[in-house]
Amino acid sequence: MACSSKKIVFLFLLFLLQLAPHATARDSSTEGFSASSSTPYAKDRLSAQFVAGALFGPVSWVREHPTLNYGQTSLRFGWMASDPANKKYFGTGNFEILFELTNSYIFEGFGSYVRGFTLLGRYNLLLADPRWALYFQIGAGAVVNDAYKDVSQSSIGQAIEFTLQGSLGLHYFISRKWTVDVEAMFHHISNANLSERNQGTNAVGGLLGVTYFFGKRQQ
Questions:
Q1: Is residue 32 part of a domain?
Q2: Which residue segment(s) compose the domain that 12 sits in?
Q3: What per-residue confidence (pLDDT) applies to 34?
Q4: Are 72 and 55 spatial neighbours (Cβ–Cβ below 8 Å)?
Q5: In terms of Cα–Cα distance, which of 185, 218, 211, 215 is closest to 77?
Q6: For residue 156, what are the CA distances in angstroms to 35, 144, 165, 172, 193?
Q7: Does 36 map to a domain?
Q8: Which range is most confident: 13-17, 88-92, 209-213?
Q9: Backbone angles phi, psi at 159, to 5 degrees
Q10: Is the residue at 195 inside a domain?
Q11: DSSP assigned state of 40
Q12: CB-based contacts of 193: which residues, under 8 Å, 6+ apart?
């Protein structure tokens, strides 16, 4: 079921790319922002992002799952793995690697908390208007939780579970180093059949946040 949801996220990304026909267009004002060494997306630059929002589950078309809704806050530390370049299938952008720490409180369903970390790969799509940038990211990680203690459910079966996620986000630059962000997320939790209870749970939701881009890392 998680695979089907990921396909939907991927197709949605391709649809949005079609809505941005000017993403690879370059004019003199954009060139100075997105291709020079001063761009926030230059290789080896660092970033910090804080986002918060809510995720709602279950998302399932196969079987009944109990409700699990949770508010999530995430702190992400990013490293630009490449300089912006025009890529055939992705448009003009660059790749970024992020490490994420998450803390979620369950406000409807079973249990009270889900906390953990995620390793993310992100593609930043630079648009013709340098104030805006789209990003798409996928990642995997692990969480600890107390939801497994409720033995009346079979979605989460142990204290340590694994996560998969995919997000589509948008940066809006309010200054050279700061952006306001909005993000739509798909989030999956399960334990890879390490427990007898492993139906897993899928959730979708939205996040709002800010990003700060640091100066280029010293070699």
A1: no
A2: 2-23+42-216
A3: 41
A4: yes
A5: 211
A6: 46, 11, 17, 37, 10
A7: no
A8: 209-213
A9: -65, -35
A10: yes
A11: T
A12: none
